[in-house]
Design a protein that fits this description.
The chain is of the alpha+beta class. The chain is built from four helices and seven strands; from the N terminus they run E-E-E-E-H-H-E-E-E-H-H. The protein has helices spanning 33-36, 38-54, 89-94, 100-121, and strands at residues 2-5, 8-14, 20-24, 29-30, 59-60, 71-78, 81-88.
Amino acid sequence: MDWHLTAGTSTVLAASDGTASIYLSSGGGYIGAGQKSKTVHQFAVECVQIARSLAPLCNPTDTIDLPPPGQVFFYLRSGTTIRLGIAAESALNAGTDPLFALGVSMQKIVSAYRVISAQQSAPKPPSA
């Protein structure tokens, strides 16, 4: 899933093996939680299952581009085939786009990474 943030673009990746990553155009990102966190792993697998069910709504494509502001792109890859689903961000937010379930599922990965990041940056209590 590719979508615009206030400053740049974010790419969220989910793979059938439970891999889940977030890449930011600013150069930052998050990787590896799909192997360390059962929650992130399950969310990634869920995303792939939803994507498979929605594949008929996505068109084959030979290019991978970033979405313009206001749109969210979903790239579904299977073998050498790439399909593209395009959703209006406003329709996703309203829950009216056919790709809504996939967007929600991808956002679960983002939320899980936020929780992990907050836990890692929280001050550690002094040892007794």
